[in-house]
Amino acid sequence: MPPLLEVRALHTEFRTGAGLVRAVDGISYTVEHGETVAIVGESGSGKSVGALSILRLIPNPPGRITNGEILFDGKDLRRLSEAEMREIRGRDIGMVFQEPMTSLNPVLTIARQITETLEQHQGADRATAERRALELLEMVGIADPKRRLKQYPHQLSGGMRQRVMIAVALACNPKLIIADEPTTALDVTIQAQILELMKSLTRKLGVAQIIITHNLGVVARYAARVNVMYAGRIVEAGSADAIYHNPRHPYTMALLKSVPRLDQPRRARLDPVDGQPPDLTRLDGGCAFRPRCRFAVEQCGQARPPLAAVGEPGHLSACFRSAELAEIRDVAA
């Protein structure tokens, strides 16, 4: 069976006053039916732009998708008309945005935010849509759902609003959900609840999921495969086990070292990633991570390393020193 989603050599760029920004610079990856895939990286690495490109929600101007294919369930989304894309969004692909307060309409009740999707994509009448909305709020664990349906977004807590966003995303039984930093604005306890909820619902319903996050701690428990992005490119990809136990790119290694760990002494210091993310308008022909890399050599400034196989099948890394990093990491430890 072919993958549910296959992104091939996708390029998305923005024309700005400072110059051309290649926010997504030739990324390729797949998502199988029912699989959870994580896209990880710092702010500005291209994670969210890549997700919005799948849904063709890039504002034009200043942005546009310049190259590549987005194959979803056998269709190239780049070739569809805008009317056809509107049918795909919400019905076949659901989106959970980063900040629900800016994604939910402040002047519509919670009921209307859910029923509108059902009426548009499934042709449901108002009574049927309201019954389904009640079921969805119960499914996502909102207490007293009948009362909540009549309320407005500002009357709900941050955790409840995020649950509503999940309910909206699930309303039409999509095949894929894209969750863009779904727990950023929530406290740690609520973050865990939301992530566990999404994990249980996607497994129960057989929905594939893309989780976009900067937090590698999230990925270990919830994703089967991981794509690490830096400066618009995927610099490492593989199973969650491979990424965690045998990282082969200096950026992945640096991200892992900057995550707090419960198995370390309480006074152990975090090891932050050195330097700042690059200016995407001023990238040269070498590796974009080179100025921040502890393992850079002369070759890194001469060409961009290709994403190539390392270690176990399906494990890829874009680093000239990938083969040496396991030994270097052991010595450094």
TrEMBL record:
The protein's matches in PROSITE patterns, at most eight in alphabetical order, are given as: ABC_TRANSPORTER_1 (PS00211), ABC_TRANSPORTER_2 (PS50893)
Please give the Gene3D superfamilies that the UniProt record associates with this protein.
P-loop containing nucleotide triphosphate hydrolases
- Compartment list: Cell inner membrane
Keyword Isomerase belongs to the record: no
Q: What keywords were assigned to this record?
A: ATP-binding, Cell membrane, Membrane, Nucleotide-binding, Transport
The protein's matches in InterPro entries, at most eight in alphabetical order, are given as:
AAA+_ATPase (IPR003593), ABC_Ni/Peptide_Import (IPR050388), ABC_transporter-like_ATP-bd (IPR003439), ABC_transporter-like_CS (IPR017871), Oligopep_ABC_C (IPR013563), P-loop_NTPase (IPR027417)
Q: A Gene Ontology CC term for this entry?
A: plasma membrane
Do you know which Pfam families this protein is assigned to?
ABC_tran, oligo_HPY
Q: How does it sit in the membrane?
A: Peripheral membrane protein
What SUPFAM superfamilies does the annotation carry? Answer: P-loop containing nucleoside triphosphate hydrolases
Q: Which GO terms describe its biological process?
A: peptide transport; transmembrane transport
Regarding protein family, the annotation reads: Belongs to the ABC transporter superfamily.
Name the UniProt record assigns to this protein: ABC transporter ATP-binding protein
Source organism (scientific name)? Reyranella soli
Its lineage opens with:
Bacteria, Pseudomonadati, Pseudomonadota, Alphaproteobacteria, Hyphomicrobiales
